[in-house]
Design a protein that fits this description.
The protein has about 350 residues and is α+β, with helices and mostly antiparallel strands. It is built from nine helices and 14 strands. β9 and β10 form a beta hairpin.
């Protein structure tokens, strides 16, 4: 196997800006990504992707993704949130690492206890420059169900990245995951989205926050991890996992996004990591995406549009309607139970 970069760190170093800066994770990602693009290792290049901010108070970002619609690998059919991993179907152990492996992430505090590798690979059907997949414990063949380790690793990657534009997104099975092998999407989006700035309401005696329907149409739960609070990273990961495992047990589809953003009060700050969790209506089987779907990115307000006419004509009201249809009823039904789940400790 050809040599690939290793990004090595300890948990305590995540709070040390000098050390994090010296690891240059974003440079590793972009240099390897650009190299693989020059070598022709993607299904298409990203030169033809257009984007525009949709008129309205929520500032949705529409992106024309015509090549992705036409050339991406057909999504696998997902019939259950807990569908088992199938080693015979496409998974990330089948890739040619010499053409797709960006780097290996090694938290040396875990090194002696963990056999399988945590890796970043390119997404061969990218939404933009730098779009990668974070695959925890790749050799373990884990189904697309979040674990404490997976969420911890994603928070570590958010912390290792020094770009204000970094985001990580997870689609559960039946919530537009297209491969049943545990992974997050790592991508960079410079346009600031409403979910990064809207003020949050604390839950009653719970560790999470919510936002009201007046602030944002897609209702969900939000955790905050401040730049000065890296000691709480493991705690936040366990709390988010408690919710996603509970949703999985109940066969409730969900999407999770990590982004830099403001604190509780909202505004233009970026010194917190916001972890957004949406429970949503299930999408069963292999679905044609049509003009656009409501997966993790779309719930944040970044709308991947697969048809030219819709890209040119999409308006805020139809995105609001799609976000509400995906989340509002499920949230209303589950929120009292989620409050009880976290108050029961």
């Amino acid at each position: 196997m050809k040599h690939h970069p290793m990004v090595r760190y300890t948990t305590s170093e995540l709070g040390n800006k000098g050390i994090v800066d010296s690891l240059e994770l974003d440079k590793v990602v972009m240099d390897r990504w650009d190299k693989f693009m020059e070598e022709g290792n993607f299904r298409y290049n990203t030169n033809n992707i257009k984007e525009r901010v949709v008129e309205g108070k929520l500032g949705y970002l529409a992106q024309s993704q015509l090549e992705r619609a036409r050339l991406r690998r057909p999504p696998q059919s997902m019939m259950s949130i807990k569908q088992e991993f199938d080693k015979d179907k496409f998974n990330f152990n089948k890739i040619d690492e010499s053409k797709e492996l960006v780097c290996q992430l090694v938290n040396t505090d875990r090194e002696t206890k963990q056999v399988e590798r945590d890796i970043l690979i390119i997404n061969v059907s990218p939404i933009d420059r730098g779009h990668c997949l974070l695959v925890p414990q790749v050799e373990a063949g884990l189904q697309q169900v979040l674990t404490v380790h997976s969420i911890t690793l994603a928070l570590e990657v958010m912390t290792l990245s020094t770009s204000p534009h970094t985001k990580l997104a997870f689609n559960s099975l039946c919530a537009y995951a297209s491969v049943n092998h545990q992974h997050w999407h790592l991508y960079y989006q410079p346009t600031r989205l409403a979910v990064q700035s809207i003020p949050l309401s604390p839950g009653p005696a719970t560790p999470y926050y919510t936002f009201t329907g007046e602030e944002y149409p897609a209702l969900g739960w939000v955790w905050l991890l401040g730049e000065e609070d890296m000691s709480k990273l493991d705690q936040v990961a366990k709390e988010v996992a408690k919710l996603t495992m509970w949703l999985t047990d109940k066969e409730v589809a969900h999407n999770v996004v990590m982004t830099r953003g403001a604190g509780v009060e909202g505004g233009k700050g970026s010194n917190n990591i916001r972890v957004l969790v949406w429970a949503r209506e299930s999408v069963v089987g292999a679905k044609d995406p049509g003009e656009f779907v409501m997966a993790a990115l779309e719930l944040t307000g970044q709308i991947l549009v697969y048809e030219v006419e819709k890209y040119n004509t999409i308006v805020e009201e139809e995105v609001v309607k799609a976000q509400k249809e995906a989340t509002v009823d499920v949230f209303a039904k589950l929120n009292p139970e989620v409050e009880k789940l976290f108050r029961s400790n």
